[in-house]
Design goal:
Helix content: 55-70%
Order of helices and strands: HHHHHH
Number of helices: 6
Radius of gyration: 18 Å
Number of domains: 1
Shape: globular
Distance between the termini: 58 Å
């Protein structure tokens, strides 16, 4: 069986990996804005929720393309199992495993968010904290396995993502802006009245 490899797969995998990290940063920041109900009563929480959902969907699309192009490019032996089960890749086992953990965490957060209305809020929230696990492991994966990881543009992107989320996290802990009354985490587009 002949291998399937192409520089286009490599370029696509590299590009979508970096773009995925940027989107994941934006998803986490948007999640912080939603959870702190930034703007109080002046900014609609529905709009923030929809931005957060759209960014999440975009991140998952780019991560999916990143995983697919990495697996189908046989230049390095990373199989389908290695994309979901850590430490099964013969190529750079630890760095790839870190990326696998990131992918699994993102998948868990995304899937549980799709069925949020059927879950206990505390259970959903516990899984949702996995977003930070996904971000940290994604950044570590990019730094340890990426072929461009130590180039200026990649390091600036990585530092920019880390700095942005760090500032947002500090703001979430210490600023605690005025919160709007009531919890409206559900979108009106879902056709149901949120529980208070």
């Amino acid at each position: 069986m002949s291998g399937l490899t192409s520089p286009y797969f490599w370029y696509t995998s590299r590009t979508t990996g970096v773009v995925s990290l940027v989107f994941l940063t934006l998803v986490c920041v948007a999640g912080i804005l939603v959870s702190t109900r930034v703007g109080g009563r002046r900014i609609g929480r529905f709009e923030l929720n929809e931005i957060h959902r759209s960014l999440s969907m975009s991140a998952m699309i780019f991560v999916g393309i990143h995983v697919i192009t990495t697996v189908i490019d046989t230049y390095v032996p990373i199989g389908w199992i290695s994309s979901v089960v850590p430490f099964t890749s013969p190529y750079k086992s630890l760095p790839v495993a870190i990326g696998t953990v990131a992918f699994d965490a993102m998948l868990a957060v995304w899937l549980t968010s799709l069925v949020k209305e059927r879950l206990n809020f505390s259970s959903w929230r516990a899984v949702h904290w996995g977003s930070y696990v996904a971000f940290v492991t994604s950044a570590l994966h990019a730094y340890t396995v990426g072929t461009d990881a130590h180039t200026h543009w990649c390091l600036y992107t990585l530092y920019g993502c880390l700095g942005t989320l760090l500032v947002a996290g500090i703001w979430r802990i210490f600023a605690r802006p005025e919160r709007a009354a009531g919890r409206t985490a559900y979108s009106p587009l879902q056709g149901r009245t949120p529980r208070r």
